Amino acid sequence: MDATLPSLAPALPELILAVGALVLVLVGAIRGERATPLVNGLALVVLALATVAVTLAPAESTFNGAFVLDGFARFMKLIAFIGAFAALLLSFDYMERLRFARFEYAILVVLATLGMALMISAHDLIALYLGLELQSLALYVIAAINRDDERSTEAGLKYFVLGALSSGMLLYGASLIYGSTGAVGFTEIAAALKGGEASLGLIFGVVFLISGFAFKVSAVPFHMWTPDVYEGAPTPITAFFASATKVAAMAMFVRAVAEALPEVTSEWRQVVVFVALASMALGSFAAIGQSNIKRLMAYSSIGHMGYALVGLAAGTPEGVRGVAIYLAIYLAMTLGAFACILSMRVGERYVENVSDLAGLSRTKPAMAFVLAMILFSLAGIPPLAGFFAKFYVFYAAVNAGLYPLAVAGFVLSVVGAFYYLRLVKIIYFDEPTVEFAPMTLAAKAVLTVAGGFTLLYFVYPAPLTAAAGAAAQSLF
Fold it and tell me: Which residue windows are transmembrane per the record (predicted)?
């Protein structure tokens, strides 16, 4: 047995997040509630340092192959950390105004980000589950952090109960796969399946495993928690749920099926195709009648995860490249949209109804223009970034011979465009009912970067496309 210590260099970002979280706990414990502004600032520094560390850490595996930092992990961690940083930055003013700012919030975001990083780099089923639970436990508390708000408490409880169910399904699936292959490492599972026929136990294990993943990315039919949690949780926490956590969950999903189960692609593809179709359909139709903008964004998120899964269903490097590009663009669009939603404030009161956006073009023309462009991009209208996101996943599906899936995705994308265009109509053609307070500096910064990326991506798409292509190749 090898007695040497494993190399910690590939896990440098995780070490920074773990040590940073411990330091923040100490600062909070010593200074009490007075520590909130300091802890918030230090949490942003920790996330920024971890983001830089992702680019510096050596690309290799460690902990006996349970943890890997490859091109795919590096790409996904970068966008997940950027999403966590932006979501945390957007939350400070909101929590201060509603008087439930607590230093624990920033620490929980850092711990959830640590769990996300472990999920993205997990190279065996045990490491995957540990990362998933670390992230989930932090998110359960974050969802219910506003103890005085009944909706927030309800959101946390719903997420906890359904999350526990999904974790059990995932663990059961992992145990069936272990029972069928005698291995937990992704490379070892793939080797055990080579040349053999998939047993019934293995197929059940794969289905249960994918069911657990589908819950984490809020794909149909495991989406039931999403609209209630998005509406009930405080808005900046909803932004965090909709952006960074989705990226990490999808990265975990992609790595597990691409690296551990390439020999049974035809079996898991059937499940992924069904989940993708159902998610796109529900996201397109269920959002049409929504009057609360956070519920609308929840159904939009479900739909977009369906489109991302179209790329995964292809089961090729080209498909994974499409998923990576989709997630990067989705993150920018989501953060931009939530920067606007967090700016829907009348005096000290935050409003969430779609009708409150009426006449925004006359009261806040710059915000209205960028929000309209983000909505057009979410609908997939060229030449905005969202069009290219859908183009890459549909192109991969067509090349893999999944013509019905690509056609269905295109048709449902047209249906989904209806509710985005309805929002644009409300912004530009309805009479103003309220005037929002000025945007905070953090919201302006996030909206400028996200809006600029969404608008100008088509000018020079090569860097993102090349990085996503390299990330996909590292999995195959």
Answer: 12-30, 37-59, 71-91, 103-120, 157-178, 198-217, 237-258, 270-289, 323-344, 365-389, 401-421, 441-460
